[in-house]
Structures are given as structure tokens and as C-alpha cells.
Amino acid sequence: MTQIVQITDLHLVKSEGPLLLEQDTRSAFLKMRDYLLEHHADCDRLIVTGDLVHDEEESVYRELLLELASWGDRLRVIPGNHDTRLPMQSVFGSMLRDDPESASFIDEVDGWTLIGLDTLIEGAVEGDLAGSQWVWLREAVENAPGPVAIFMHHPPVFVGSQWVDQLSLVSLGVFSNLVEDFDQIKMVVCGHVHQEFYTQIFHADVFTTPSTCVQFKPNSADFAVDNAAPGFRIIDLNLDGTFQTTVHRLIN
């Protein structure tokens, strides 16, 4: 069995930087990092699905890399709408594809292919696959020897919150058609919406995961903050192509 830990929407700022919706994102992240070091330091992959920083500069990415150094070459990252592609490529280049148009990755572990997509449209809140990723993604899934798990920031589904559903993946239909074509796509794991959610696209299970800091209220027509605790997702991948996944929250 392979264990993956997903964290998302860190929104880190520089030391002594501004609060996000009255929350100290740096303190919240460090509390999460310490918990993961105590309980999941030996996970097979730690995947961060976007909004690593909150409108900051390359130095914050470097600090993040240092804070997650315990996971070494088991760390994977993709950008969210608050990230900037070039600094990410500069800092995390060794774990990304050699592609100037995207900060994406492909990985294999115990028969599973893990694909991390770059859905950043710089200057926008909504997302879509950057560069030539649509062609690459189709080829990567076609060539996968076994089950596939896709990680992306913007969910390719609506989660039932009107305001956030306007800011999801632009090409929902294109993504759904691709999933329909490939039975080996077993799961799609996302961030962006700062809440836990589950649905399906054809045969694939789709999950969103709570933020390490601020949470958004589910099923809200307008922007609203929830008082739910920060969380992360554990995914256990089995050799037979099945999986189990749960969200864990850090209670204050």
C-alpha cells in the first residue's frame, strides 16, 4: 500500500506578513507541518495542490521548500491561482516536468501514475490547463501502465457554492470528456475551494480538501468563511487499483 498526504491552499506570506481573513496562515501551516512530521513523516508522497503562497515572492517559496525538506524527493507541488509560475519553476524545478509552459509533474509509485496539472491562469481566479497540457495529459494517461490519480488546484466540477463555482476550471466539459475516455483514471484530487467535497465524473471519484488555514462555508451563494478546522487528506493506494481516502482535521 502507498500512502499519499495532500495539503492545499497554504497562502503563505513573508514573516510578519499580513493576515488572511484575520488568520495567521504561516502559523497555521507550521502547526500542520509539525503534525505531519509527527504522524506522517514516512508517507510515500506529500503533494501540495496549489496556493502555496498568497501574492508573495520567490523567497516565500524557498522558505516553504526548507520547511518541507523532511520529505525530500517525496515532495510534489502544483500551482494555484495565487501562485506565480516562474518562481515555482525556479524553486521546485527538480520535482516538475521540464516544460516552460507549466509547473506540472508526472510520477509513478507502486503501479500508480500520479499526474499533477498546472491550472494557473496568471491574473485570474478561475483556472484552466496551461500550455499544451491537454495533449500531454491525454498521452500520459494513454501510456500509463496502471491506475491514474490526477491532482489539480481548480476542481473540474461544481461544489454547490455559487460564488466559488464561478471560479472553477473553465473547461469542465473537456476534462469530463477526457475522463470518460479512460477507465484507468480512478481519482481526481483538488484544492481551491477550502472545503471538503466529493462527487464523481463518470467512473472517477473527485475530491476537494480543506485548506491548512481558512475554510469556506459549503453551499453558500455568496462568499462566507466557515469555522471548521484546517485539514488535510490521506490517500492509501492499493496495488489492485482501489484506494481509500479520508480527511483529517486539526482541532485547536
Question: Can you tell me about this structure?
Answer:
There is one protein chain. The chain is of the alpha/beta class and 252 residues long. It has one domain (2-249): Purple Acid Phosphatase, chain A, domain 2, CATH 3.60.21.10. The protein is built from six helices and 13 strands. It is globular. The two termini are 31 Å apart.
Question: How many structurally independent domains?
Answer: 1
Helix-strand pattern: EHEHEHEEHEHHEEEEEEE
CATH domain fold name: Purple Acid Phosphatase, chain A, domain 2
What is the residue-mean pLDDT, rounded to a whole number? 94
DSSP, total strands: 13
Classify the helix fraction into a percent range.
10-25%
Gross morphology is globular
Q: How many separate helices?
A: 6
CATH superfamily: Metallo-dependent phosphatases
Distance between the termini: 31 Å
Name the beta content range: 25-35%
Largest sheet, if any? 6 strands, mixed
Name the poorly predicted regions: none
Look at the structure and give the CATH class. Answer: Alpha Beta
CATH architectural type: 4-Layer Sandwich
Structural class: alpha/beta
Spatial sequence of strands, sheet with the most strands: 4-5-6-7-9-8
Rg, Cα atoms, Å: 17 Å
